[in-house]
Specification:
single chain; mainly beta
């Protein structure tokens, strides 16, 4: 799994007014929990570009005034109108302690339904998994090599190696939609 460093500075005042002042200076208020104590800090907003605006999963190396923590992003809050990053929650990682995380889906194989003219429709882009930090996958592989026209592949068909999938087993990950042009020819065959 990729790792990314974020340098932060401890916060003394934790009020609404102080948070607003911090954001005006292009910093983001953050909190780290899951360890022995909560750590409130700010970090430059520009550092979050590679972390939040990508489907990839990262382990974050937090450097808060010289103290290093290994963490993952638990939650990020954005302004509803201007999409400005308002707040980020980090969860500290401890060896052997399981964490829950959304991991992107990666398709492998070639679907016969797509070769026949169907369109692959992705229903779930990410799956929620539970694993220890050392077993967290970069992505969940989904084999679509036996996905025919009009069929779908469910979460129950995915093989989890070293982690547990928490997403409902009945949820469809992908389906092969039948285009209108093919629907007409298929009905004519009956």
């Amino acid at each position: 799994m990729k790792s990314l460093e974020i340098v932060g500075f401890k916060r003394a005042n934790l009020g609404k007014k102080d948070s607003k002042a911090v954001r005006l200076e292009s910093y983001v208020p953050c909190v780290l929990y899951g360890g022995t104590e909560q750590v409130h800090f700010t970090a430059p907003a520009i550092l979050f570009r590679e972390l939040l605006y990508t489907p990839e999963v990262h382990i974050v190396d937090l450097n808060v005034e010289g103290t290093h923590y290994r963490a993952i992003v638990q939650d990020a809050q954005f302004h509803p109108v201007n999409e400005m990053l308002l707040h980020v929650d980090f969860l500290e990682l401890a060896d052997g302690k399981e964490v829950k995380m959304d991991v992107p889906v990666k398709y492998v194989g070639v679907s016969p339904g797509v070769l026949a003219g169907g369109k692959l429709v992705s229903k779930l882009r990410k799956l929620k998994v539970k694993a220890t930090p050392e077993n967290l996958p970069d992505f969940v592989e989904v084999d679509i090599s036996d996905l025919a026209l009009g069929k779908s592949i469910k979460v129950s068909k995915v093989e989890a190696k070293g982690y547990t999938i928490l997403t409902s087993t009945q949820a469809p990950i992908a389906t092969v939609a039948i285009p209108r042009a093919l629907k007409g020819t298929m009905q004519g065959e009956k």
